[in-house]
Amino acid sequence: MAKKKKLYSAISILLSMAMLTAACTSAPEEKTPSTPEKNQAPVTTSYPLEAGVTLTSWQPLNNNLLSVNIQNMADTSFGKELEKQTGVKVTYTHPPVGQTSEKFNLMVASNELPDVIEYTWTAYPGGPEKAIKDKVILPLNDIIDQYAPNLKRIMEANPEVARQLKTDSGQYYVFPMLRESVSQLVYQGPVVRKDWLDELGLPVPETIDEWYEMLKAFKEKKNAISPFTAKYAGGKWDIADVFIGAYRTSNGFYLDDEGKVRYGPYDPQFKEALTLLRKWYEEGLIDKDFSIPDADGKTLDNKITSGISGATVGLIGGGMGRWLDTMKDKDLNYEVVGVPYPVLNKGEKAFIGQRDFEYNPSNSAAIAASSKNVEIAARWLDYAFSEKGNMLFNYGIEGESYELDNGTPKFTDLIVNNEQFNVQQILSQYSKQNGPYLTDVNRNTNTYKQQDDAAKVWSNTEAEKHILPRFITPTVEESAQVAKILTDLNSYKEEMFVKFIMGKESLDNFEKYRQQLNTIGVEKVIAIYQSAYERYLER
């Protein structure tokens, strides 16, 4: 297969720094990791490795595997093939769904760590720099130099990505989850019932006013009980920056046009967004039950497929794809499409929207400081960034899950026309859906044209300028301050957000609300994030 194309330049993603609170202690002194000596000649890697090598790995298990009753990565076709190709037998441990942070904290506190840990290391209290200082994980600079030629090649070819992967002091800490294509970086946005638009003779909405007219028509002419709905999960209403971005602010921390960190709910113009949502709620255009938790999204699924709602904020795969699948044999006219992030005036470009970085801190792998198998762990992780390993991680097993068509991998009918499983369920058994590898630019698991079109439509925003990187790292002292503030800040903000929209709190009290955010410490967090962002730019 041809060499990988150069990664696109760095783009931005919204930061919501959910700092962990468990204490982190040092690894036992008697364990001496097998880190390479400085100036040691790089190891020439050939696979499979020598017989009999083993590793332990802790990593979340993809929900698609659980949905088909597979409980361990070792039992998948992917896991078996990875062992065959690398020669490394891995014992996997998977935290229960919804308990990743809790189980991680307990594992770290116990000092009983596996060789490899797949986690969001930017969420570690004090960031990855502190995780290294606590002797939980190893700095990888020398390890990558000696044992990871494939990842090193990618980093040397892409300085911006290399910057994203290191701490402020210059220490690399993960084998990362990387994506190549913009279409893989944009996967969430506003969704509407296109068949309803066509039936009512309405245009695809672009402005707030057009959204208003559309939602009124859905209520009055399609009898939609909840014209607009969205999932409420994780303690917040999951509308991202839809509607809010029209007022040149955000629903969280972001960068303004001058590159300064702001907190959208603290902005004066946030009141305008709240005024809009309050009006729509009062007129019955927003789901009256929008604040009832819907962690698994089943309530949203029912409303958007049953005619209760005609518009939402959804994912390309876990939203649009599922809804189109559900309805393809039930209603031949049913169609949902991604529509632009709404703006105030026709022709404007959306201020912000969902957009990811090439490096996603989630599902990235570090090597435990206590590991006795550092070289094996590094070489095993680096296999994912090799040409052959990259094919396995992206596409699975040649001749089973994919074939090469003039050098381009194409999924077989086993994947795209499986009678027993949907695409994501079967593909998760043959490849790694999320994790430390480089997603191939040609990989596309979308089933419908509407999904491909949605990614293009949602990409047309200024999010690249305004989303704050998730991998900025406050210092240990700063992190302690942020951890104390953020829980109260997020809780109060969301409580008032719901009250303002529902009319339980008058918008006349918006300044009092801002004063309370300041009392809680919002300006201190803004200042800390600003310092961390500036340090990131200087890496």
Automatic annotation (TrEMBL):
Write out the coiled-coil annotation as residue ranges.
none
Q: Which UniProt keywords apply?
A: Cell membrane, Lipoprotein, Membrane, Palmitate, Signal
Q: Where is the signal peptide?
A: 1-22
What InterPro entries does this protein's entry cite?
Bact_solute-bd_prot1, SBP
One Pfam family here: SBP_bac_1
Which PROSITE patterns does the UniProt record give? PROKAR_LIPOPROTEIN
Protein name, please?
Extracellular solute-binding protein
Lineage in the entry? Bacteria, Bacillati, Bacillota, Bacilli, Bacillales
